[in-house]
Amino acid sequence: MGSRPAYRAVAAETGGLLGSRGLRLVYGGGNVGLMGILADACIAAGGQVTGVIPQALKDREVAHLGLEDLRVVGSMHERKALMADLADAFIALPGGFGTFDELFEILTWAQLGIHRKPVGLVNVEGYFDPLLAMADRAVEDGLLRPAHRGLILVEDRVEVLLDRFAGYEARDTSKWAEGLGR
Q: What is the model's pTM?
């Protein structure tokens, strides 16, 4: 769950806001840590939750068995593809390697024009500041186009990010695939 109470609080707040706004949560299907808090808060607020979990993780008893919609897949690759297909937008909360992996994959897919859905970070207590600095450095060094850096929406507060998602105008990134070297 992390060492900072703010991480647990933002997971609960995010789940509660999604549920109260009538938005479906699509997430990794776990019942532990911040994922469990997120899902439980969404359910408690009257929301609908779809969990997607690989069989291997379900076998390790980390699946949230209180979900009406728990989809079990064969691999992490299948999990990410199904979650991306089911979701209308993507939010990253503070997390570890799994969060980073999923965030960068979904950003790469946006860069390539595979999807045109908003991607946002809830920057709790500046958690994502080093990652954002790295992206800015990549722009400065000519390794990332400014338009691609602009794919990341960043807010300190979940409700502001959700409001930005509601007004999001999808960008046509298909033409960017031609310049993959940068």
A: 0.89
